[in-house]
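Subgroup meeting minutes
Present: P.N., E.W., G.H.
Scribe: E.W.

1. P.N. recapped why we're keeping a running log of single-chain structure predictions: easier to compare across weeks, and new members can see raw inputs and outputs side by side.
2. G.H. added today's entry (156 aa).
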Amino acid sequence: MSDTPNDHPGVVIFPPLLLVICVAGGALAHALCPYRLPLGPWARWAGGALGLAALILALWGQRTMKAAGTNVRPSLPALAIAAGGPFAFTRNPLYLALILLFTGIGLALRSPAFLAALAPLALVLHFGVVRREERYLEAKFGDLYRGYKARVRRWL
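Output recorded in log:
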């Protein structure tokens, strides 16, 4: 693939927008069903720690992609394979960070209704974003990406 206007993975939604939509849906679900899980105060701390870890992972992943000389936004062409930093442990640290952040919010709220929105978030990320990016990167970078894919797990 060349760097043409169609040189991008064609994800179904901008991942941060997906997070915002799922947070709004989770908040609405929580408002309609405000039941809270019977967890102690540790849940707020654990949720906050998970959220903080997610933000650190996302920033680390963005910096690693920029240092590798590639675009962070999935609507732009991939210019290189980022294989260092968090990409040495997971092929999708930015998307993993979205899932961790969402989970941290739900845990802090102790809301099963909010956490139920994690399923659509994870499914759309997996099938509408990650799988499309993988096909695109394999077509664009061939054996280089296939080798990276063989060494590093998709999620954890």
